[in-house]
Amino acid sequence: MSEKKRTQVEEMDRGIYDLKNPFTYRKKTEQGLNEEIVREISREKDEPEWMLEMRLEALRLFHEIDNPVWGPDLSEVDMEKVITYIHPDADLADDWNNVPEEIRETFDKLGIPEAEKESMLSGVGAQYDSEVVYHSIQKHLSDQGVVYTDFETGMREYPEIVREYFSKCINPSLHKYAALHYAVWSGGSFVYVPKGVDVDVPLQSYFRLNAPGAGQFEHTLIIIEEGAKCHFIEGCSAPKYNALNLHAGAVELFVKKGATLRYSTIENWSRNMYNLNTKRAMVEEGGTIQWVSGSFGSKVSMLYPTSVLLGEGAKNEYTGISFAGAGQNIDTGAQVIHAAPNTKSTINSKSISKGGGIGTYRGLVKVTKDAVGTKSTVSCESLMLDDESRQDTIPAIDIANKDVDFGHEAKIGRISDEVIFYLMTRGISEEEARAMVVRGFADPIAKELPLEYAVEMNNLISLELEGSIG
Questions:
Q1: How far, in Å, CA of 361 to CA of 291, rounded?
Q2: CA-to-CA distance for 10 and 26, rounded, in angstroms?
Q3: Per-residue pLDDT tens digits for 37-55
């Protein structure tokens, strides 16, 4: 790796997010990707034959499918240099005191146990490298039939449900890194909310990648039955290394008739990370999916949460923000497929770039011929903090009937010198004035997050801005 690339990786101190533990493990595969490694992962998990067969078919697809020819350059992603499975030296626990001290301290510093203790979360999952090390759910939810556990436990204890839904929302053939995911997935979360149950306090899974040169491939499967409600929060981070790390998780969401699911994410990967995650929701009649997304940190991100509105009156709401600094290419957006009458979607995307960073909104709104009465609104706003940075808006719009109400608005601009001057006349430093404008730009996203995560997002923005503008 060149000296320039090393400088980009190490260019700023990310505080608690860059804390590293020694690379210790109970079990790991060798670098690379082949049939024996896939079989080894499956043996380690004592999986049923159908899962192994799916893994091997996904491996075949991965080798057949090319990298996308659009978007960021992925030629640096070399699976021969990636460790696909690392079992930390820890067992799954439902008591933080039974989690190894150095792992527990990492999650302590990230604030996860404290949030659980203060009842800001009704269930918590914590994954470290390739395996979940802690999981819990409040008794009043389990008494109502709510299931929240790690994905392997879900597959073992609810095999009929998992087999019915697994890979039905995201198919391994969707793209190269979806195939990779299904070949080597490990860890993740399984959520099942019965009919009519309201999970009024969020569930959260936090994914921490500690190992250098490794991949994380967690699988999240959430099923919200008719009339039920749930808010699920996903947190992600990793320390910086001078080695390529890869994240290719998958999130499959099933929202049944009249149900509501809010899926909030703060991704704070390090700048040696390729974040190639896949998220998709299937929404039935009268159901609602709400995406709230914050993308920070990674060297390259390609992430486009997708909603398939299958039933009449189904709704999608997407609110997202991304931040691209020096050496970063953050390519994000949202996709909505209107496949039923009277469906509605809103997409509100904000993107910030500085120091030569590249930010791209890449989205799709597709309306089928049967989706009459569709209403869709897309708003993309981009803010460049200097003359080096770049922002692009690349919307795709595919409408197959005439009974559609559709609006699209895109704005790309810089911070107004007049606004900065005005704030400085009120005694505010130029650096803080610029930071205030950026926080104000991001505020609509912060308002959609629970308070503690809004604070985290603002801290991440301050971290990105520190010493970079003025």
A1: 15
A2: 29
A3: 999 999 999 999 999 999 9
